[in-house]
Design a protein that fits this description.
With 124 residues, this protein is mostly beta strands. The protein contains no helices and eleven strands. The strands form two sheets. Strands 2, 4, 5, 6, 9, 10 and 11 form a seven-stranded mixed beta sheet that branches. Strands 1-3-8-7 form a four-stranded antiparallel beta sheet, with no helix packed on it.
Length: 124
């Protein structure tokens, strides 16, 4: 079991930038995939970016080039740098981790550990 706590969400203007952090309450090691998801108002939760223990990254097409995922395993922190934010990026952003995901790039809903999320509002 691991506790994940997201931070950094706030209101920003369209075109702005924001950095989100996900702090893990225990050591992140072994084989894993660690990812950011978001849930926009009235929409299903969707994967944004993932990174694994080999630093291999996966991005959804709709954020590629605008968002960057990174990790600092010495501090057990996952980071999402977001730029050129648009109103459609308004959402609750959550992080999740799954150990030994069997090659899947994204943590499975029922097999991973999830944070409670941090809210980002982008105004035009």
């Amino acid at each position: 079991w691991v506790q994940l706590v997201e931070s950094g969400g706030r209101s920003v203007q369209s075109g702005g930038s924001l950095t989100l952090d996900c702090a893990a309450g225990s050591k992140i090691d072994r084989t894993y995939t660690w990812a950011w998801f978001r849930q926009r108002p009235g929409k299903e939760r969707e994967g944004i970016a993932a990174i694994d223990n080999d630093d291999k990254t996966t991005y959804s097409e709709f954020v590629k080039g605008r968002f960057t995922i990174s990790q600092d395993t010495s501090k057990n922190v996952l980071t999402l740098q977001m730029r050129d934010l648009q109103p459609d990026d308004t959402a609750t952003y959550s992080c999740a981790i799954e150990w030994y995901p069997g090659g899947r790039p994204w943590p499975a809903r029922d097999l991973g550990y999830w944070g409670r999320g941090t809210h980002v509002t982008v105004s035009s």
